[in-house]
Amino acid sequence: MRITVHILHLCHWLMLGLGITLASCKHFDEPEPKVEIPPTPNISIADLRLLVDQQRVTIDEPIIIAGYVTTSDQESNFYRSFYIEDGSGGAEVMAGLYDLHNIYPVGSYVSISLEGCAVGLHNSVLQIGTESASYSQYPTDYFASRVLLDRHVKGYNKFSSVAPKPISFSDFSPSLCGCLINMHDLQFVYNATEEQSQKWSGYSIFADHDGNAIAVYTSSSASYAHKSIPLERVNVTGILQYGDVEGEDMYIIKMRYEKDCMLAD
């Protein structure tokens, strides 16, 4: 009986000692989580835009840009691409994947190694991807795989919300294309794609009190495409573009969500 008690006591102390040792090992031997430091950009989006001008350019130098994500494909008005801004301008990344809002959420920081990438302007927006075919109307193509995308585009656990720039018609400039903007006190006039429609799908024309017009584009695949457009005066947020709207060149807003159109105060 005494032997049993002594053995139990011995086991107890051995287990206690082992617990202390394991706890000690866990405390001192576990490596600290590695924090990735983003590479420093060596060119701004605005300067890259000036460098590209109206050409299709393939970058063969170690150029890096970076910025914060401004768009989401969660409501399907953006398709396999996302936009970033760095304070000087905005750019579209032709990621080529679906559900990008899970990989590059709004506000997350992204760096892009441009060496080997193609860059050009589409709808007056700086676009980054891979080389497109010579006959293509687009200056770039989508990254062909996640492996290729990850080689050039890297997201980081660093967040900052990009506030939309409040602008009026007098502020319009090609340099703002690709940026998240906000326009106040607009009113729906007509749908340029389906003239009898008051639904979002297609190009919806809005105007200010002076009759200045801008188009708001909604993909037919967007979750809100077949919902009714408010007939009251509204404020509209989205990415600014410039291009052909049913045969007429004009500025365009591409919303991210249905809630990007809000009733004006």
Features:
alpha+beta, OB fold (Dihydrolipoamide Acetyltransferase, E2P), 9-stranded mixed sheet, 4 helices, 18% helix, 34% strand, globular, disordered N terminus
- Under CATH at level 1, the class of the largest domain stands as Mainly Beta
Tell me the overall shape. Answer: globular
Q: Please tell me the CATH architecture of the largest domain by its name.
A: Beta Barrel
Helical content stands at: 10-25%
Query: What structural category characterises the helix and strand content?
Result: alpha+beta
| Percentage of β-strand residues | 25-35%
Q: How large is the radius of gyration?
A: 26 Å
The CATH topology of the largest domain corresponds to OB fold (Dihydrolipoamide Acetyltransferase, E2P)
**Span of the ends, CA to CA:** 87 Å
Mean pLDDT: 90
Strand count, sense and barrel status of the largest sheet are: 9 strands, mixed
SSE arrangement, N to C? HHEEEEHEEEEHEEEEEEEE
> What's the total count of β strands?
16
Helical run tally:
4
Low-pLDDT runs of 5+ residues are 1-28
Summed up, the domain count is: 3
Describe the model.
- The chain is of the alpha+beta class.
- The chain contains four helices and 16 strands.
- It has three domains: 1-30; 45-159, OB fold (Dihydrolipoamide Acetyltransferase, E2P), CATH 2.40.50; 166-263.
- Helix content is 18%, strand content 34%.
- The model is unreliable at 1-28 (pLDDT under 50).
